[in-house]
Specification:
It is found in: Cell envelope. By secondary structure, the chain is α+β, with helices and mostly antiparallel strands. The protein is built from eleven helices and 19 strands. The chain is elongated.
Length: 371
């Protein structure tokens, strides 16, 4: 009798839905035209963490949830050596069609079906044995992937009040979304303190322990007293010492953020030199360049090659996030900031444009004229 009862339980369990155990991610594929070959599961850094041989278009992965990896993607190499890099269609639009993205999120269960289509792009040149592909059926996934594929915004610029209404609505609709929280954290320099505080209040309680929330709260704290921190900010000087980058006796402090590997930054240097000549005898103008290089040898070599005749600093890796917070930067370079002697940011221009030099000159002139 006990044996019959046990068999009945096993039969009932086998008839239940295929779902991943708690704290696991289960990824299944049943793709009609997938050639025989190896499917690779890649993490957010595109490193292969598992692989399986697929035959008749079927494959599956089962893995423990990793708090450090919220995003996954796939690639495939068939028996003839053709490599396919997967893209996934979303509900967002781009140039009149569905936007393709590289990743899906670590939901409990993710299912791929349909057939693969080759994605052709004039902007992306691929080797003969590599192709971009996407399934012609939407992924069947959980709420994290659905939220990621549904949001439609651009956070790579300063968020105006009218644009903030859209961001706020997205968070209200998906208060559990890890993707939304990550995007806001990574682009926190583009939000005001008030906007960040309001957005944090809209997320679910279980999101408030994540490292992204901690980073946003630290940013808010740093920026609320940023002027004093900017004035006292010390960085590594080119001679190896440490000194403040702001001159309290100068009305205008010009902070040029760059790196030796940044082509547009190097392109702007000759024009900056010409502008420096115009104001080099002006006591109320103080120039510094701040490098984001991680390789000091590359930084110093570039300094020798470009011979910028003003003070040169480099940011230690342990200070980079703090610096981004108090100066409201997101890491985009070239970036030129104008700061007064009280540590207040007067103006900020991001990116390279030939017309920027005229704007720099105008900002300097206008602020020198102020009492």
């Amino acid at each position: 009798m006990r044996l019959i009862y046990l068999n009945l339980l096993l039969f009932i369990a086998s008839c239940g839905p295929t779902t991943a155990p708690k704290d696991s991610v289960y990824i299944m594929g049943n793709i009609k035209n997938l050639s025989a070959g190896t499917v690779y599961l890649l993490n957010s850094e595109r490193k292969a963490i598992d692989s399986v041989y697929a035959k008749d278009g079927k494959f599956s992965f089962s893995l423990q949830r990793d708090p450090e990896n919220d995003f996954y993607t796939l690639s495939h190499i068939d028996d003839n050596g053709m490599k396919s890099i997967f893209q996934f269609p979303t509900d967002r639009t781009f140039r009149g069609g569905p936007l393709q993205v590289d990743f899906f999120m670590a939901d409990d269960t993710v299912k791929l079906g349909g057939s693969l289509k080759v994605f052709h792009s004039r902007q992306i040149k691929m080797a003969d044995n590599i192709q971009l592909v996407y399934p012609d059926e939407p992924l069947s996934a959980g709420k994290q992937t659905r939220a990621m594929y549904s949001v439609n915004w651009d956070l790579n610029k300063r968020i105006t009040d009218s644009e903030f209404v859209n961001v706020q609505q997205q968070v209200k609709e998906y208060p559990y979304s890890i993707y939304l929280l990550k995007q806001i954290s990574e682009n926190r320099a583009n939000f005001s303190v008030r906007q960040l505080q309001l957005l944090l209040s809209l997320f679910n309680d279980d999101m408030k322990q994540r490292k992204e929330t901690v980073a946003i709260k630290e940013s808010i704290s740093n920026r609320q007293v940023s002027s004093g921190k900017i004035v006292s900010l010390e960085l590594k000087f080119v001679d190896g010492g440490v000194k403040r980058i702001i001159d309290r006796n100068s009305k205008v402090n010009i902070l040029v953020f760059w790196a030796s590997w940044c082509g547009p930054c190097l392109q702007e240097i000759p024009a900056l030199k010409e502008l420096y000549k115009k104001y080099k005898n002006e006591d109320n103008v103080h120039w510094v360049s701040v490098s984001l290089d991680r390789n000091e040898l590359a930084w110093k070599k570039s300094l020798e090659e470009n011979n910028m005749p003003w003070e040169q600093f480099i940011v230690p890796s342990e200070k980079i996030n703090f610096l981004y917070d108090i100066l409201e930067l997101d890491g985009s370079i070239p970036a030129v900031l104008f700061v007064n002697n009280q540590g207040k940011i007067i103006n900020k221009l991001i990116g390279y444009d030939k017309e920027n030099i005229k704007n720099y000159d105008k900002i300097i002139t206008e602020n020198l004229a102020k009492n």
